[in-house]
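Dear support,

We are seeing what looks like truncated structure output for some complexes. This example has two components. We would appreciate it if you could run it in full and send us the complete token output so we can diff it against ours.
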Amino acid sequence: AQSVTQLDSHVSVSEGTPVLLRCNYSSSYSPSLFWYVQHPNKGLQLLLKYTSAATLVKGINGFEAEFKKSETSFHLTKPSAHMSDAAEYFCVVSEGRGSTLGRLYFGRGTQLTVWP
Amino acid sequence: DAGVTQSPTHLIKTRGQQVTLRCSPKSGHDTVSWYQQALGQGPQFIFQYYEEEERQRGNFPDRFSGHQFPNYSSELNVNALLLGDSALYLCASSLNQGNIPGELFFGEGSRLTVL
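Here is the complete output from our reference environment:
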């Protein structure tokens, strides 16, 4: 079974300081992992994805994540937070390829607040 | 290029009623998935349609049903509404590429309130 645990429901940082959003996953298969962002009253937007290529994945808006199989983690980081980064972030696992692709398992989300 | 569009954006129903939500996928996409996002929770998979057939289904009762049309658009129907069905319903489209993981594009959702 696939599941995702986001270790923090809320994270607050000051603008210009680093961001760390933590995620652990459980998967019976070789997983695909994603981070999505959801701004208020907006749809979910893909930040980045890991699909068994390079373990350090770079995404949009300066975000990156590192896949660590030994720790079953996929933490999201950004060197310097911006006010526009304030949003809800979801760590997501997908078990499969082909016909099973599209069934995503979402974490409960981490609300990121950025203080000026 | 229009992304994923959903309608209506907001609606209010009473218990026992039925609702139909609609989704038009991103141009060129052939697969539509539906998710339910309760307040304060992550989205949960309802089902996925490809080639006008339900290909996968999550842990939702039969009151939740869907349809995909030849133009790849899709509908989500919920019968006998319960208070607990109040949520944001998200549609996501993708292109079936066999074993290559593709990206899901999400619409902004339909917010259903059941009174």
